[in-house]
Amino acid sequence: MTEQTTPTDEQATQGTLTERATPTERATDAGKPKEPQAVVAPVPPMPVAPPVAAADLVPPGAIAEPVPPVGPIPPAGPDEPVKKDRRILRAVLRWTAAAVVFAAVGTSAAYGITRMERTDVPGLATEPDGRWDYPTITRPPLPSGSPAPFAEANKSGSHYADLRKLVLPAPKGAKDDAALRGEDGWLASGTFLAEYAAKEDRESPLRQLLTDYGLRNIAARGWTTPDGTHTRIYLLHFDTAAVADELMSTELTYYDSPQFAVRGAPLTERDEKFPERAAVDEITRFAYVESKPYGAEQVRQAYLSAGDTVAVIVQSRKGTAQAVPFQQTVILQSQLLG
């Protein structure tokens, strides 16, 4: 904010352009008669400029370039007033401004295309980044009149769609894991519990927890990709979202590690590199990675709470389990359950 100063009486009388006289000058001029001061006529108001046509304006952001020479303009003769030359010049300026606007629009459009991700531009191939090539994934239809799991009318958070069709399909080129097919698509709880390393964990408390929390059934799928990554996905179905969320948050997971170690991963820590922006609405996720130094293979795992369902995802690979396909698998499975 600019401060305003109040002029003194002397300044208000003399104005800002009147210089003060020194004492010597005042003594010298004391005997001289004062000359009459010239009366300054008031400045007439500026004429109002006529409205500017829209074609004469350059849009904001457009950079106006110098007008190129258009050749010499002949001097105005006695029968050709100067106003005609000015009209010609204005017309040239308008057309030049229009050309600059079109050039700016074309340049900005080209810049937008070059800044887009390759996946956003149809017809351009994407560079390999480790993602798997999954088939087209769609949610199974809901029974007539049944709400979605996170609809306001669905207070229990129930998945009314067939849970076996909510398991993520294998990517292209992967070999199916026959051990996880189950009977008619439903997996025995003992096969799921075999994922955990310690026998004392499998029998108690894990088996007892599944009984106490009222496990209804398990849908599963597994596969091995050509690079040797072995993926296992288990969907554990319970009566309500409250039951499933309590089981996962209080019995299966800690913030920095799972409560029960899976096979091949005795030491596991929170996966800090899993992007938070990849979170799926209404899905609670805990992602973990095996700590260094690990053995012959590395294991990654994730737990998801999605309505009345708890998802357990495990990936292992000789050497290092890659982060990108793991994140991709977890995100797609989350979206299917959402």
Commentary on this structure:
With 338 residues, the chain is an alpha+beta fold. The protein is globular, with a radius of gyration of 39 Å. The chain contains seven helices and seven strands, in the order αααβααββαββββα. A hairpin with a 6-residue loop joins strand 5 (284-290) and strand 6. Strands 1-2-3-7-6-5-4 form a seven-stranded antiparallel beta sheet, with helices on both faces. 27% of the residues lie in helices and 14% in strands. The chain starts with 8 loop residues before the first helix and ends with a helix. It has helices at residues 9-14, 23-28, 82-115, 189-193, 199-212, 241-252, 323-337, and strands spanning 175-176, 217-224, 230-237, 268-270, 284-290, 297-306, 309-318.
Shape: globular
The helix/strand series, from N terminus to C terminus, equals HHHEHHEEHEEEEH
Total number of strands = 7
Largest sheet report? 7 strands, antiparallel
Structural class: alpha+beta
Given the structure, what is the number of helices? Answer: 7
Mean pLDDT: 76
Q: Evaluate the radius of gyration.
A: 39 Å
